[in-house]
Design brief:
Elements lengths: L6 H23 L1 H23 L4 H17 L2 H10 L4 H12 L2 H11 L11 H17 L3 H24 L1 H8 L9 H23 L3
Length: about 210
């Protein structure tokens, strides 16, 4: 079945509402998602408007949407790894396993909301992974034409940048406890803002590369 010529325009109007619906249950119990949603929507809308004017194929908008969405939540797997593999002996880990087996994801998200501040030794939420992600992202954006992969990669970077920004704003010491976990030396508080500037610069490049992709 052929889509109408204004399908991308309709998609632009409908997808923000779809995003809100998809995120709805998560946002009810997870404040972290509220911080992720505004920049994701801004990037999606900005990219979509640009693509409409350049008559990008309608299916690319779908790849864009799902790439941003899945990339924004993928790194939360860190907490499942923490519960199920790194620290299965903890009481919160037993509660997480019980909720997972029952398929009670709302309770799982509530548990995450109340215990995430204790998860300070993670794999993906770490400065080393954030640094490694930069050259990988450049490779993806310069060698691939797959919009889903590009959007997914951008969302990974944006996820970490948002976490570091709000962590620095709300509790720098807690931020350093997970960002520089397992490190004897940590970045002084006064230098974290420069750390943010550097990764903001790279994220802006990736956003531009995504918008210019078509």
């Amino acid at each position: 079945m052929l889509l109408p010529l204004n399908a991308p325009a309709n998609f632009l109007l409908l997808m923000p509402f779809a995003t809100n619906k998809i995120f709805a249950n998560i946002i009810l119990v997870n404040r972290e998602s509220k911080k992720q949603l505004p920049p994701l929507l801004a990037i999606f809308i900005l990219t979509t408007v640009f693509w409409i004017f350049h008559k990008v194929a309608w299916y690319q908008f779908i790849f864009l949407f799902f790439g941003l969405f899945l990339g924004s939540i993928f790194l939360e797997l860190d907490h499942l790894i923490y519960w199920f593999y790194l620290h299965p002996e903890l009481e919160e880990s037993r509660l997480a396993k019980a909720a997972w087996k029952k398929g009670d994801f709302k309770s799982l998200l509530k548990l995450l909301e109340s215990t995430r501040h204790k998860h300070t030794s993670l794999i993906f939420h770490h400065y080393f992974f954030q640094i490694i992600l930069i050259p990988i992202s450049f490779f993806v954006f310069t060698s691939s034409s797959n919009i889903f992969i590009k959007a997914f990669t951008l969302a990974l970077n944006l996820h970490l940048l948002t976490k570091v920004y709000f962590g620095y704003k709300e509790d720098p010491e807690l931020l350093k406890s997970w960002l520089f976990a397992r490190e004897k030396k940590q970045l002084p508080n006064s230098y974290i803002k420069y750390y943010l500037y550097i990764f903001l610069f790279f994220n802006l490049i990736f956003i531009l590369l995504l918008i210019l992709s078509r």
